[in-house]
Amino acid sequence: MLDTTALLDQIVPAAEAAAAAYGASVLTRTQDEAANATVRLGQRLIRRLLNHDADTAPDSDPVRTAVVRLAEAGADPDLLALHRAELRIALRTALTEAPDLAKELSALLPASPPPPTAHAEGERSVAVGRDNSGSIATGDGAGGAPAR
Hints:
By secondary structure, the chain is an all-alpha fold. It is 50% helix and 0% strand. α1 packs across α2, α1 crosses α3 and α1 crosses α4.
């Protein structure tokens, strides 16, 4: 089973970029040569989301409504945050109700880069595979205690 949260973390920024770049016209625009890859990806994702169920009336589609509201939010940070959350919720609902759709959308996304690896060899070596937010100390008196 796909991780819906991880999938949403990839879909929402692309859909948001498309909505911000094109406003409500992102729902009908097929392709724009000047658009960057993220916007085009957002367009493909939104188009697939909106066309996944032919029986759904366009005006009642929660994803469509959320995209339009996000596009119309302008630069107001509070409205952007609200409508971004609405889009995420609408997408989560659509993905949980249609597991096959989640697989299709996942196939549209670029492959994730491999996780960073770290390797340390030797006495008192340290390896950090991601971020380090604290001190790293090795050796005699390590750990913040003064050497005696």
